[in-house]
Structures are given as C-alpha cells and as structure tokens.
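In the previous chapter we treated chains in isolation. Here, by contrast, the input contains three separate entities that must be folded as one system, with a combined length of 1218 residues.
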Amino acid sequence: MSIEDPYELLSKWFEAKEYLVVGKSVTRSDSIEKAIGKARFLEDYYEPGRMLFVKQLLSTEPHAIIESIDYSDALKLTNIVGVFTAKNIPGINNVGYALPDQPLLAEGKVRYHGEPIALIASWDIDDAFKALEMIRVKYKRLTPIYDPLEAMERKDILIHDEQGSNIAFTTKVRKGDIERGFSESSTIVKNTYKTHHQEHAYLETEAALAIPDIQGRINIISCAQYPHLAQRIVSKVLGIPASNIRIITPYIGGAFGGKDDEGPLVAAKAALVAYLTGKPAFLIYSREESIRIHPKREATIIEYTSGVDDNGYLKAIKVKIIHDTGAYTNRGPYILWRATMHSSGPYYVPNAWVDGYCVYTNKVPQGSFRGFGNPSIQFAVESQMDELAKKLGIDPIELRLKNLLRPGMDTITGQKLDHSVGVADLVDKLARKMEWSKVRRELEDWNKRSNRYKRGLGIGVAWHGISTSRGVPDWSNAYIKIERDGSVNVYTGIVEIGQGTPTTSYRQIVAEALGAPLEYINVVFGTTDAPDTGATHASRGTSIGAIGVLVAAAKIRERLNRLASDILKTNPENIVIRNGRVFDKISNREIRWEELIQEAYNRGVEVSATGYFYLPKGKFDDKIGQGFAYPAYSFVAVAVLVEIDTWTGKVRVLKAWPGLAAGKIINPTQVEGQIEGAIAQGIGYVLYEKLEFGSKGEILNADLTDYVIPTIQDVTLDVEKPVYVEDKYKYGPFGAKGVGEMAFIPLPAAIANAVSHALNKRVTTLPLTPENVLKLIGGL
Amino acid sequence: MFYVLPRFNYYRPNSLDEVLKLINELENYKILAGGTDLLIDMRIKRYTPRNIVDINRINELQYIREDNEYIRIGSLTRLQDIIESNIIREKLPLLYNAVYNMASWQIRNRATIGGNLCNASPAADTAPPLMVYNAKLVVSSINGSREISILDFFKGPRETDLRNNELLVEIKIPKPHIHGYSYRKIGRRNAFTLSIVAIATYVEIENNIFRDVRIALNSVAPKPVRAWSVEEYLKNKRIDREEIYKASELVVKDISPISDVRASADYRRKLSIILIRETLFEASKITG
Amino acid sequence: MKVRFILNNREVEVDVDPREILLDTLRYRFGLKSVKRGCERGECGTCTVLINDKPVYSCMVLTVQVEGQRITTVEGLVNDDLFKKIIVSFAEKGAIQCGFCTPGFILTAYALYRIKDKPSIEDILKALEGNLCRCTGYKKIVDALTSIRS
C-alpha cells in the first residue's frame, strides 16, 4: 500500500510547516534518575561472589613471539575457576573490523604493550589479582617499530607477516589534472602537519556482564555502541548463532567512539568466560587497563600542498596522509578513507591528488573517536586556507567564502551535491553575527600594545559525511507498538551514551508523528530485541537512527488517521492528533487518544510497525577514488579567541562562536550540549592531552593524573549560542543531519589558526602544550 | 576492583603517646593521615607496609595557633582548614596561595600538611612557602622531641630526615617581618594538577634595597629547593629590572630538573627563570 | 573489624576488612549505586560523598576510618529542598548527559550551597575543580548552578 511507502512518509513529514515538539528543548527523560543515582550503569549489575570476576593478563612486550604461557600455579588458587587463552576460543579468534588482522586474545605473537593475552576467571577479586602475578609468559623478543615513517620503509621487520608490508591499507583520490591546476595557481602553500593520539577518557571504563540462560543462550549487558555488532562478534568468537545472543545496554558513562571499537570485544571476552564456565562473568577495565588497551584517536602526518589563482579560487591540492594505526587496523582503513574523502575541506577543488596510508606500528591501535579521521585532516586544510589567505593578503573568511561548496557543485570525489549544502550561508552568517573583521582588527591593535600576552582569532570550517562511507549499505529501523492504554514503546538498537538521542529526539519524533502526549512515549534502547538499527556512531543516532523511528510512527499515524476519520465521520486529511487530542478540524468533533487506541484494538487496526528504511547510495570507484562518498554532509564552523602567555607558553581559549548547518535542529538544548562538550574535548585535545610512550611503546601516563583532561577551570564557559542554518536533508527525519561529532572537527584548526594569528607563526604540530608553544616562538 | 590494597594490620591509636609507643615498636609501618597519597602508593605497590597507623583520632595534632614568635600548625591539620584560616591568609600568604592551588576540594578536605611534607615528593606544594618562611618541623618520639629546619628535612625523593620512631607533630613558622611576596604554580592544566614548577618568592625591602630575598621551587630537583644563588646575588642590591633579569638566570645553578611525562628538563629550567623573574617583579611591586 | 557510622541519617554498622574502601562499602554493602567508580585513585570525582557535610572521594577513605562519622550520598538527600532545587536545575538546563559524573557534581555543589547562599562564579568553579566531566564542557553545569543563586 503506497500509503506506507517510507519515501512518501518521510517527504510528507519533511514538508511540515509547524511542529508540536520537534525543534523544542524538551528535557531528557533520564535526567532525574541519573541525578539521584537510580539510573543503572554497568557495574551496578555486578554481585560479588555470585558471578565470576574476570581479569585480563596484558602483554608487557611491544613485539614478541609468545613461546609459552604457564598458568598452572594460578589454577591452584582456591577461587580461580579458569585461565583462558586464544586456544580456548571455540569459534573464531579473529575480530578485526576492517581487516582480519586482530585477535580477541593474542595468538602466537603480541604486537603492543598492553595487548590482552589471557582471561582469569575468579570467584574472588583478590585471587584474580594474585593469579595475574603468577602467570608466566615466555616471550621471544622481536624488534619493535614505533615510527610510522620507518615502518613504511622497513621490509625486514613486519608487524603482520601475513601482510607482507607494514602498510596495511591505502586510499586515493584522483580528480582532474593537478599539474594543470598548480600551473594555473599563482600562490602555492606547502606544509607538513602532525597530530597526536587522544584518549577518550570516558568517566565510566569498559565493562560487560555475560549471563548464560536456560536455553543455551547468553545474555550480555554490554557497553558497546552497536548492540547488533556485539552480537555478531560474540557469535563469531563462540561459534554459536547470533539468535542465541541477546545484548542489553544500560546507561553508558560516555563513549565517544571508544566503546564502538572496544565494546564488542569486552562483551566477547565476558561471553567467552560465561560460555566456557557456564557461570555469569563480569569483566571491568581499570582506568589503567582502559587507557592501555583500547584504540585511540588517529596520530597523523599530513603533507599538504594547495594552490589558488589570482582571484583566490582553489585550483589544486596534493595531499599525502599517513595514519599510525598501531598494532592493528581496527577501524583504521575506514578512518583513513574518511580522512581522504574529506581532504579538500568543504571547498570546491577542481583538481586533486590524494594518497592515504594506514601504517602498522607496535603501539596501541588507532580507532574511532568523535570526528573519525576528520579533525586531523580539517586541521591541515584550514591551516592551509589561512596561509593562502595570508599570502594573498585577503581575509581568511573572504577566501573561504569564495571557495565553499554550494548546491550543485561537486566534491573532491566528483559527487554532485544537489541540496542541503548550507555551509556558505553558515560562514557568512557566523562572521556577521560575531563581527569577525572588527574583532580581528581590534585584536591586532591590542597585540601592538601588549608585550607579554598575545591574542588571536581563528576559524575552522569543516564538513562531515553522514552515514557510513562509500556505498557501504546503511539503513535505519525501529519497532514501535502502542499498548492498549495508549502508552507507546519504541524499540531501537541506538544506545544512550550521554548524547540523549533515545531520551529526547526519539520521544519528540514519535510524539510529533503520532500526536500522542510526550510523556506517553517510552524508548527501549540499546537492545538486540530491536531490529538492527546500525551503530550509535558517525553522528547517526538521530540523523539515520531516527529515520526508522519516524517511518514506523508515520505508518501507524496513517492508520490512526483513517480510523479516526471513520469514527469522526470526516476525511483522513481533516484529522488532527495533537498532544493526545484527536479531532476533526472541520467539525471540531473530538475523541481522546486513549479512546482511539482502544477502538484500534477493538476494530483490528494494527498499532505496531517497523520502520525499515534503506538509505539510497551510489557507486564508488576505488581505483580512481571517484564517486559517491556520502549521502549528505553536515557542516560546522567554530571561531575561537585565544590568549597566549609568551613567557610561559600557556594558551587559553577565551571565547568560542559555533555555527552548524545540520538540517533541522530537533532539540536545541541537546545540540548545544553536544557543541559545548565537543569544544571542551577539542580544547583538551589541542592544549592539554598527550599520550607519552616509553621505550617499549608502553603508555607512560595511563591514568588521569598524568593524562590530563580539562577541568572546569580549563575550558571556556563563554560559548556563544550557535548559529544554525537549517539546510534540511531530504531523507533525514524532519530534514535533520548529524550533530554529535561536528563541533570537535574544526576545533584543532580553529585553535591552531587563532594561535598562528596571535603569534604570526604557523602552527603545524599539535598539541599546543606550553612547551611546544615556547618552541614555536623560539623561546626554548 | 581496579586495584587491591595489600593486606595490613590496622592500628587506630587514641592519643599521641599511644602513636609514639606504637611506632617505636612497629617495624614496616606507614602513618595514615589524609591517605590521599598513601592509598595510591599502596595500590601501585610503591609501598606495601605490614602495618598502618591511622592517626586521624589524634585531634591534638589539628590546630593553627599563633603566639608572639611563631605560627604553629599541627601536622594533622587538613589543607582545607589551612586556607580557611584567617591567620594563614593574613600572616602566611604564600602558604595560603600554595595550598589554595593544591589538588581539589575533596582532596584538601582529607589531605594534611604533615602528610604532604612527610610524603616528600619533589612536587610537594607546601614545601616552597614553608622553605621561604624558614619553618621548623617539630618531630616527636618516645625519647622526646627535636626540631628540624625544613631546609634539612628533605633528603631526596620520598626520603626525609625522620627516624623510624619519629612522628612529625608540628610545623612552626617564625612570624615573618613585613615582606613582599609572590607565588606561582604552573601545571599542565589550570587546576587539580601536579606542578611542573611551583615557586614561592619572599622579599624584605628597605629603601628600595633587597634586605632579604628567599625563593623556593619544587619539581626541579630531587627535592624542593631554595634558589640560593639568586638570593645571594640580589641581597643588598637595589631593586632594578636588569638586576632581576640577571639574577633569575642564576637559578640554573640551584636546580637539577629531569625530563618526565610532565615536562622536559629544558622547559622546567626555562620556567624557573621566568617565574623567578615574574615573582620578583610582583613581590617587589615593579612592572616587568 | 566493626565500624559504626551514620549513613544518610541512619545509624549503621558493618564488619569489614581494614583495607576495604568506603566506595566499595557504599556500593556493595548498602547498594548505593550513585557512588561511581571512575579511577579509584582520587583523580575524577565520580565517587564523591559527603563526610560530615564535606565532599571527599570515597575511593580515598578506608571504611574503618569513618567510625562515628556522618556520610551522605544523593540517595539520602531526595527529600531535601536544596538538593531538589539543584537537580531540577541540572535537568532543566541540560547539565546532564551521560550522567556518570552527575551525582558527584551534585554533592559537591550541594556542599557548596550549604556553606554559601550566593556563591560567586569563582566559588563555583573552585569548588568543582575536582569533578571531571567529559560530556558537557561544564558550561551547562555552571549555568544550572548560577541560576539557582537565590
């Protein structure tokens, strides 16, 4: 029946002119329970003595053959139930996401200091720790490599023998003719940029509780950002059908991508112990283990050349991107792919030549972290833009406005963007609102008067493709049922990691589409009991995840409209359902929501539905790096004002002005929360956070004393209200695009540009610790 | 759950005499005061004491008092009580500033001044101010009491002049004359962090002449140190911008910084010079 | 070892090993799940509780040390007017995201408001230095707290 065609339903709601709850700052449904300690997190399910406590044995070598693992003494401890290694895995040990290169538990060889080797299962925590010290691993040391440039050259030392090279994966873009492009350029800028790892430092560390149940099934309370992926990984490791594995996700104390990589592996380790012992098994990472084990934000080296003509139009770019992926690729190839396809920034570039290399080293793996390869490349792009503007003698905003993508233009991969491209409007609006030119001029005068302290204003503009990369299938789904009393249950695989998707936007979208009161909507999130919804990553929780929610609700609404029109003797088009009132807008005859639902049950009108939606995508040709990359892009711009103490090298961000072109804004307060949080995380990344590696490639600061994240005194509280350009995307729910990662992406660029402006020196290397800033200005 | 504390015997004496008797008899013990350093050190197995002597019941060691000559602080006085004391704020502003910038409210509510000193970290933040005030440390044992100048107290990282049966009971600070002062702490972030360098600078000025200059720094040597070379150079010199610049460079003779996860030796050296300059300017109320 | 103390206005007694930390006692003997474990070494603030109305990290206190003391967690404040004002303000201002740090922030803020009716922004920032939040960027937390200054 065409009335239930998802495209038609989406487009009907896309056209809405007024909204009941969408676009309003509805309060999250989980706030109070979190405030009073009622909201359950993972450790809240652990009952000491009644469940096995699992402790991991980690490698203390960066690169070595495992000759033997002797745990016979450990097994003599009274509470130890077992010690499990790769050889105990009944299914497949290989859990690599992008390439089949990563074991759940080290097999034959270890490739980084901190790699999990064995699982100790104990009834008692003390004995688990004792056992840990009693296990003897005999290693045969191999030469480690820590520098990706060295790793690319070496053929004699291979971190993965089976690969035949330390280059795990490559990407490319070939567009137009760069030789012609550069010959048409009158100004060319070339720089090499370096960015560093970032630790997620979510306040809740990773954990999982696996509980065997009566039918040979395993229930897992998990922290994974994608329950159905955790299910798949567990199924693979245990060699049992996915249908025997049920994932439940409680509230998660922050994730930022880190639990997208590590979450399924935590679940698989707990599940392995539960499966092998038949007992409930609880695994929790200590802070130190969390920092040592889980993948980090990409560390990169980017060589970037760009050319503009006399009129300030970009003519060509040549880019080489090297990602230090560490011991395993994890999602490294996807991260590199995203970086490569975003390497032009949100600008029209006619000629491009880009090469990407994902390189193994004997360090902690690279992984998913808010922005996914994009913050580092946008840092390079936006630094280049400022340098070009400087050489041309024009304002950085002016140069950007000349080159920003507009509807109808094609991207670096040759993909034509026909709509939802609000970035030029955004930058223009933001610059006007903040009085960019005036502030810059005033600062330059201020700097003339100030000797010790210097101030600078910088901007970062960025784009971020929504959904998974390339033609990789992406879809949305949800299941909604209305109970007999009129209350509504929504089932989704999207998880609640702090972003508030299930607890705000889903409730708003369902209330809007059904017309039911907001407080009637309950969202059951993070469960494999829901249809596979895809992951809570890539800013897709609302932008993609809620498409299915809207489609399911819209289907039921169509049925309810017909039913109501029958009851109220009018046409379905005249039916209004608003906040639980159901009426005919002609006659004003009315019934209550509860009566309508009761009638639906009485008359056999189905009030449950799934909302499957398959996102249309195009083709991509890997050989030339051209084609369809992403269904839509969100755009973001953030300007920051910094002050530098040139004596100590300390940098402070004094103010930030964010702007977003991410389609319809469903909940302004939640979006602000994402923006402000991302800005703080970006300030942490650029100014304070840095992993320190020792001579064995070990992380020396695997704690929150020496890995310093911002406190309340280290961020700017002066974040202006965001500027929004609602450049709606036709398949987004009500036209919404992604938000969660956005404000982080241009932050390194914005701060670096502001510091460069203040000091009149180009920043090319992060982080901007006081020490590095002093080096930059020749003070050290 | 993230750590297990090693097993220990727990003693909770009710009086100072009891404490002194206990520590005279016990071997392999640690004093538990605020616990904010000790419990971490036990978790990471830096210390695995067989016995723990909890002195938190010894209320007689918690006080801030003032007499004609001295300001006296009981060793068990919490850091938060120090910054809430008017005596400290008014009479010992460098100590006030140092403690104000230490750790967090939650930690200051537990951590004690005696604990910070006896832990003898090279980064101990109460040390620089007390070193410029020439504080004396009163230590007791069953054999009686003795006084140690704070300048002789630290022997190296986590080593002090305390004997095995001695307890630090009081910090005794000679009341300073009228003086100029300035305190700076640079860490990797603005709050709740360990110092890369912290510095306390104290000057007595008469007719525009430095009559006394005392400067102490932490985190730039195996123990907190005085910048003797700078002090000597400036004493009895006129206050002068150029002289301060010259003097500040001399600090490199007094310090021996290392590179670690917090900063490089070079940066610490550079910061020491800069902060000496800056604090001298501020203390002597001239502009840099 | 037997320890008696007042927990959320109730007199309680437990028998613990001296090396048990207050964080574990509160979570596992009393089921107070608001007290979170983020680092177990005094670095993050998620395990903040009040001892005699002062905020402390419960991971840095041995349970045997709280003999005779008064311990408060958010579970013990649900009927308290000041507490209600704070949590409602946190909820309305959007100061809660993942929520893992939230009870710690609220207890510290509560302790501040108990000693100061109208804390300045500086007072608020100073008090909250020892509570880390990785989600909100702190702005909405400060907004929530400044908006209730009576």
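Chain B has three domains: 9-54, 62-174, 180-284. DSSP finds twelve helices and 14 strands in chain B. Compare these points with the single-chain example from earlier in the chapter.
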